[in-house]
Write a structure and sequence with these properties.
- It is a single chain.
- By secondary structure, the protein is α+β, with helices and mostly antiparallel strands.
- The protein is 64% helix and 14% strand.
- The chain is built from 13 helices and 13 strands.
- The chain has a six-stranded antiparallel beta sheet. It has a five-stranded mixed beta sheet with strand order 8-9-7-12-13, sandwiched between helices. It has a two-stranded antiparallel ribbon with strand order 10-11.
- A hairpin with a 5-residue loop joins β10 and β11.
- α10 packs across α11.
- The N terminus is likely disordered.
Length: 566
């Protein structure tokens, strides 16, 4: 798992102060820009006010100039025509001029202009007085003096206009420069503010990208951690299940229990699958159903070994659409689309096949997900089944006679002791047959040991086929056999022994191609508790009855103590 850290702590520690400094810088720049803009605006407004003031002054000066000229013109006109209307107009114009010059004097701020305004006012006053003097008596020289006075007043007003025009131009230029400075300052502060904001945005964007990258990496690490945890949990569950399976297999006393245990645990791994264990019948070379998890299993019982593709290829086979669509031949009806066959093999021996089939409506993904674990469980069960097979074979060999496949004398003693105890507890009866093949030495001497072995096997097979399931047939030694008959009384034991004797006498063996040879037996019968209470007593009584039958001519059945012979 990747343990690389998404970002170092130092980078995070540097980012926060930078963001704080950037934010403070942005605030300071905005505040400074606001102050500067405020001052520039005030200055601009002041410049605009001065400009308007100059315009007002120029307007008043223009009005004063016009009224001065009007007074001069009307005064001369009156002196010429002596019209009262002109007189009234001159007097009204003089009053208006005085008012205009008073307003002009109050309006002007500049000291030079203010002085000129006073001079103009004085000149206008003198002009008014001169006009009033001329109205009573006038000469040509007085009229000329009036014109000169009017020109003087007009000259003062003209100089004031020129000066005010210069002031207006200067103030206009200053206002324009202020506007330009304001624009430059605004653009500069805007650029700086944008740079600061973009820097802050860059830091935030970088931090956001780092955060997103960190979150993605944490998400991937989380997924990896969850996957690791899930894997560990699955491994723990698999280990627990495998340990439980091993424990149950250790408790199995026979192969049927081992088969059922294997199927039960395999079905827990893939609950949706139908599980069937097919075992190999080595004698008949067939696959037989050993255990199944589905009562309605669609697997045929008793099919040839090559009916399963896994047996043909000697390896596991997964059948799936588009992967491998060749079906095995051990199905009843239509095979499913998804199934898995795993051979069971251990100690160089093929034991069977484990079949897992998914119905068409179920999800087959469990077969692929748990494939390795299924292999491990199959391997475990194969080893235990092989070990159990070996143990049962060794036990069988230890209690069976190798020639006749009957129980040997050691097992006979164990079984007879058990049955005697059971008969004593139940207060029932138990009978013994002790059989001996008549003239057996003759077969060995005349035809060889192979012929003797053939006779022994033939009698053993007939005895095994003629007794009940609960009866125990043993090879007592040499050509002698001992049969334990639980729950059988003396009379029934005698009659059944007689039937066995007749069947043997009717048996004919073709020995070494020399024709059929007749075989007969002699039987001694003893019964618990009438002829003995212990193993030794019952066996001795049976031996005595057997000797009595032989002495009576062989091919007979004899009862212990009563010495009844037929």
């Amino acid at each position: 798992m990747d343990t690389k850290t998404p970002s170092t702590p130092g980078a995070g520690n540097r980012t926060i102060p930078l963001l704080i400094l950037g934010a403070l810088g942005a605030v300071l720049f905005i505040c400074a820009a606001a102050v500067i803009f405020y001052k520039n605006t005030q200055h601009l407004l002041a410049s605009r006010g001065l400009e308007e003031h100059s315009q007002q002054v120029l307007n008043l000066l223009e009005t004063a100039a016009q009224r001065t000229e009007r007074m001069d013109y009307l005064g001369r006109l009156y002196l010429t025509e002596k019209n009262k209307d002109d007189l009234n107009t001159v007097q009204a114009t003089a009053v208006q001029l005085d008012t205009t010059l008073s307003q002009l004097e109050d309006l002007i701020w500049d000291s030079n202009q203010r002085n000129r305004a006073r001079s103009a006012h004085v000149c206008a006053h003198e002009l008014t007085q001169q006009i009033n003097g001329l109205l009573q008596q006038s000469t040509e020289s007085d009229r000329m003096s009036l014109t000169r006075r009017a020109l003087e007043c007009r000259d003062i007003i003209s100089r004031m206009q020129v000066e005010e025009t210069i002031l207006l131009k200067r103030r206009t230029e200053e206002a324009e420069r202020g506007t330009y400075r304001n624009q430059i300052t605004g653009v500069a502060f805007l650029a700086v503010s944008l740079a600061v904001v973009l820097s802050l945005f860059g830091f935030l964007l970088r931090d956001a990208r780092q955060r997103i990258a960190t979150e993605k990496q944490l998400f991937r690490m989380n997924e990896q951690l969850n996957h690791t945890i899930q894997t560990l949990e699955n491994q723990a569950n698999e280990t627990s299940l495998r340990a439980a399976m091993r424990g149950d297999l250790q408790l199995c006393a026979n192969l049927s229990e081992a088969y059922r245990t294997t199927v039960r645990y395999i079905a827990q791994v893939v609950p949706s699958a139908n599980v069937t264990l097919l075992t190999v019948n080595t004698q008949q070379q067939l696959l037989e159903i050993g255990a199944t998890s589905d009562a309605q299993a669609q697997i045929l019982d008793g099919v040839p070994l090559n009916a399963c593709c896994a047996m043909r290829g000697a390896r596991s086979r997964r059948r799936a659409p588009g992967h491998s669509e060749i079906d095995c031949s051990h199905f009843q009806g239509t095979p499913p689309q998804n199934y898995l066959c795993i051979p069971l093999a251990a100690q160089g021996q093929v034991l069977g096949v484990l079949y897992l089939g998914c119905p068409d409506e179920s999800d087959p993904s469990g077969l692929d997900t748990h494939l390795d674990f299924l292999y491990r469980l199959t391997e475990l069960s194969s080893m235990w089944i092989a070990g159990l097979n070996l143990r049962l074979r060794l036990e069988e060999e230890s209690i069976r006679d190798g020639l006749t496949n009957l129980f040997n004398r050691r097992f006979m003693e164990i079984a007879l002791d058990r049955e005697l105890r059971l008969a004593a507890r139940r207060k029932g009866e138990l009978s013994l047959w002790i059989l001996d093949i008549d003239h057996f030495k003759y077969f060995n001497d005349s035809f060889g040991h192979e012929a003797g072995d053939q006779v022994l096997r033939g009698v053993a097979e007939l005895l095994s086929a003629s007794v009940r399931t609960e009866d125990i047939v043993c090879r007592y030694g040499g050509e002698e056999f001992l049969v334990i008959l639980p729950g059988i009384g003396s009379e029934t034991a005698f009659l059944r022994a007689e039937e066995i004797r007749k069947r043997v006498s009717e048996m004919h063996l073709d020995i070494r191609g020399e024709g059929c040879k007749d075989v007969t037996i002699s039987i001694g019968v003893s019964t618990y508790p009438h002829t003995g209470q212990t193993i030794d007593e019952l066996v001795r009584a049976g031996d005595r009855a057997l000797y009595h039958a032989k002495e009576s001519g062989r091919n007979r059945v004899s009862m212990a103590e009563s010495a009844i012979a037929v």
